[in-house]
Amino acid sequence: MVTNPYLQYQEATLETASQGKLLLMLYDGAIRFLVTAQAAMAERRWVDAHQANVRAQDIVHELSFSLNMEAGEIAQNLYRLYEYMTWRLVQANVRRDLAGVKEVEGLLRELRSGWVEAVKANPGHTGSVGAA
Fold first, then answer.
1. Predicted TM-score (pTM) above 0.85
2. How many Å apart are CA 59 and CA 52, to the nearest integer?
3. CA-based, 20 to 30 A from 109: which of 16, 28, 37, 119?
4. CB under 8 Å to 109, separation ≥6 — which residues?
């Protein structure tokens, strides 16, 4: 059976990535889907916008589920922020509200930049202060 080399590479990347890098990959995916949703909304392609929005919501849920709530206040604050993002994306999806999608994209970009710094500061560590 011939396997797609790209898929093999992607699978190997996921299997060998640190927890911090996996976290960054999740942020990247959510941001990518929100950019796609915004473009689709601008072109009034509502089905495509909906699908991209839901994919971003799924990633935000995954980020929320990955939190280690025993990490304390940071994890609790992230949980509340992820809940807000999910609510905002649901509202944006129902109301076709571009501003809501942009807001969540901005929040994710800001959080991602913080995680980039944490991963850089601790390359041998998982980089997952609030993750399980």
1. no
2. 11
3. 16
4. 31
pLDDT digits (tens, 9 = 90+) for 19-48: 889 999 999 999 999 999 999 999 999 999
- Alpha-carbon distance 3 to 20, whole Å? 28
Q: How far apart are the first and last CA of the chain?
A: 36
Question: Residue 129 — very low, low, confident or very high, per pLDDT cuts 50/70/90?
Answer: very low
Q: Which pairs with CB-CB distance under 8 Å and at least 24 residues apart come from 5-12?
A: none
Residues 74 and 130: beta-carbon distance below 8 Å: yes
Tokens at 63, concatenated = 């980020």
Spatial separation of the C-alpha atoms in residues 33 and 56, rounded to whole Å: 6
Structure tokens at 104: 């969540």
- Complete DSSP assignment for 90-125: HHHHHHT-HHHHHHHHHHHHHHHHHHHHHHHH-TTS
